[in-house]
What does this fold into?
Amino acid sequence: MPLLDLHENKKLIHVSECAQKTYSINDSNYPVYVLTNVYGIPNLMDGRSRFALALYDANGNVYDCSFSYMLPKIPSMLNCLQPLETKDEEIDIDVACYVCEDVSNNYWHFTFQIMNRLFAMEESGFTGKYIVYDVTFARQMLQLLGIPDERIVWFQKNENIRYKIHELHYVHFFENAHGGHGIGVLNRFASVILENSVTYKALSRYPKRVFVKRVGSRKLLGVDKILEEFGFYTVLLEEHSVLEQVLYFHAADVVLASHGAGSANSIYMHDGAIFIETFGRGYVNPCCSFTLLESGKRVKYRMIVEKGAGGLDNPRGDYTIQDELLRLVLLDACGNNDSK
It folds into this structure.
């Protein structure tokens, strides 16, 4: 049944009710819905910097998979979608897989919520094209994975394009995917990336103790002196390619990171390594811990939270960690080896 009215009495419709067939991928537990004669146009979601390919049936009704699990399906957002008729140029695609959502332009979400599904499809023997939001790290990651560019449909915002997809495979995403679904897929995905890109010679050039410093909001402040004492090398991941980020994390015995998108690289750390993640009290979201703890890898996870009560009214604020607490955690992580 349709959920909501939107512009010109079009409807939001459930993929599960319209699919010609449904199947599951390997051990990921992701269901795949196969739709026929689907149209797609790039959209700027709810006026913010979130992009997705909105999917329509031939009558211009919108499929519910056009939206991220993170965003509520409310009329004000539905009305931000452009009508199907607004795009002039049409590109015909025979078979495609849809894994792109409005979170695609964030490195963490792309790794944990896009690449897990795309890689599961690749493992299953899918030979069609993937529809992916065009961002630099996505191109680099798929290149490291070894998927040729001719199998990718790269879309961008503000394109005057309407895609006609004769057979669309939509991989459903679980809201609780942090805690169980697709963990094995993520492990295998990370292993393939490492096999394709890591050499002993390359690793030898990277430090054993790394501090991942954030730019913008939620920065960890006032730790330079302590980190220098323990021999940490400071990295701004925004200045490095995906390959370089993989190498920084895989070479390191200890990584200390302010929580952020770069924490996704913890899946590339070697067995026995220690990943320490810090949080301000206004925003505590140890989402990487689920993957590391349940993946079977022997990467040790530690988290440190800013002292004090309150702060929930400023979830994006910078923060500090007590010197004594940080020093104790670093002594535990680094004190038994000399891999500065």
